[in-house]
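Q: How would the C-alpha coordinates look for this protein?
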Amino acid sequence: MAVLASVISATAAIVAVGTPAQAFGPSYCNSSTCSLSNSPSTGGIYFEMPRATAVTMLCWTDNQWWNGTNRWFKVDSVYGRGYMIATQVSNQTKVGHC
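A: Here is the predicted structure in C-alpha coordinate form.
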Protein backbone atom coordinates (compact mmCIF):
# COMPACT_ATOMS: atom_id res chain seq x y z
CA MET A 1 0.00 0.00 0.00
CA ALA A 2 2.88 2.38 0.80
CA VAL A 3 4.39 1.78 -2.68
CA LEU A 4 1.04 2.50 -4.34
CA ALA A 5 0.70 5.72 -2.35
CA SER A 6 4.21 6.77 -3.44
CA VAL A 7 3.43 6.10 -7.11
CA ILE A 8 0.17 8.06 -6.91
CA SER A 9 1.93 10.93 -5.14
CA ALA A 10 4.74 11.03 -7.74
CA THR A 11 2.22 10.91 -10.62
CA ALA A 12 0.20 13.75 -9.10
CA ALA A 13 3.38 15.85 -8.79
CA ILE A 14 4.24 15.31 -12.46
CA VAL A 15 0.72 16.22 -13.58
CA ALA A 16 0.71 19.32 -11.36
CA VAL A 17 4.00 20.57 -12.82
CA GLY A 18 3.19 19.69 -16.44
CA THR A 19 4.72 21.74 -19.19
CA PRO A 20 4.72 25.52 -19.10
CA ALA A 21 2.05 27.18 -21.23
CA GLN A 22 3.23 29.71 -23.77
CA ALA A 23 2.55 33.16 -22.42
CA PHE A 24 1.38 35.99 -24.65
CA GLY A 25 1.31 39.63 -23.76
CA PRO A 26 1.52 42.05 -22.03
CA SER A 27 0.68 43.78 -25.30
CA TYR A 28 -2.84 43.38 -26.67
CA CYS A 29 -5.33 44.27 -29.43
CA ASN A 30 -6.89 47.64 -28.60
CA SER A 31 -9.54 47.81 -31.37
CA SER A 32 -12.90 46.09 -31.70
CA THR A 33 -10.95 43.73 -33.97
CA CYS A 34 -7.28 43.75 -34.95
CA SER A 35 -5.99 42.63 -38.32
CA LEU A 36 -3.37 39.87 -38.37
CA SER A 37 -1.40 39.88 -41.62
CA ASN A 38 1.18 37.52 -43.13
CA SER A 39 3.12 40.59 -44.34
CA PRO A 40 3.52 44.17 -43.08
CA SER A 41 0.70 45.41 -45.32
CA THR A 42 -3.07 45.26 -45.66
CA GLY A 43 -2.70 42.95 -48.66
CA GLY A 44 -1.70 40.07 -46.39
CA ILE A 45 -4.53 40.33 -43.82
CA TYR A 46 -5.89 36.87 -43.12
CA PHE A 47 -7.55 37.09 -39.71
CA GLU A 48 -9.37 39.54 -37.43
CA MET A 49 -8.50 39.04 -33.75
CA PRO A 50 -11.03 40.08 -31.10
CA ARG A 51 -10.45 43.04 -28.77
CA ALA A 52 -8.03 42.40 -25.88
CA THR A 53 -6.30 39.45 -27.57
CA ALA A 54 -2.86 39.22 -25.94
CA VAL A 55 0.14 39.39 -28.29
CA THR A 56 3.88 39.09 -27.85
CA MET A 57 5.73 41.70 -29.88
CA LEU A 58 8.76 40.21 -31.66
CA CYS A 59 10.11 43.05 -33.81
CA TRP A 60 9.05 46.05 -35.90
CA THR A 61 9.32 47.16 -39.50
CA ASP A 62 8.12 50.15 -41.51
CA ASN A 63 6.15 49.49 -44.69
CA GLN A 64 2.69 50.42 -45.99
CA TRP A 65 0.99 53.46 -44.44
CA TRP A 66 -2.34 52.53 -42.90
CA ASN A 67 -4.45 53.90 -40.09
CA GLY A 68 -2.08 56.84 -39.55
CA THR A 69 1.25 54.98 -39.39
CA ASN A 70 3.62 52.84 -41.43
CA ARG A 71 4.95 50.94 -38.36
CA TRP A 72 4.08 47.22 -38.21
CA PHE A 73 4.87 44.81 -35.40
CA LYS A 74 5.56 41.13 -35.95
CA VAL A 75 3.65 39.38 -33.17
CA ASP A 76 2.79 35.99 -31.74
CA SER A 77 -0.76 35.35 -30.57
CA VAL A 78 -3.06 32.43 -29.86
CA TYR A 79 -4.13 32.85 -33.50
CA GLY A 80 -0.62 32.50 -34.90
CA ARG A 81 2.33 34.65 -35.90
CA GLY A 82 1.84 37.66 -38.13
CA TYR A 83 2.02 41.44 -38.43
CA MET A 84 -0.18 44.04 -36.78
CA ILE A 85 -0.33 47.76 -37.51
CA ALA A 86 1.14 49.67 -34.55
CA THR A 87 -2.02 51.69 -33.84
CA GLN A 88 -3.86 48.45 -32.94
CA VAL A 89 -1.27 47.36 -30.33
CA SER A 90 -1.63 48.66 -26.78
CA ASN A 91 0.93 48.37 -24.01
CA GLN A 92 3.75 48.22 -26.54
CA THR A 93 7.07 46.78 -25.42
CA LYS A 94 10.54 47.62 -26.69
CA VAL A 95 11.58 45.31 -29.56
CA GLY A 96 14.24 45.50 -32.23
CA HIS A 97 13.94 45.95 -35.98
CA CYS A 98 12.94 42.81 -37.94
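The two ends are 59 Å apart (CA to CA).

The helical segments are 2-17.

Upvote if useful.
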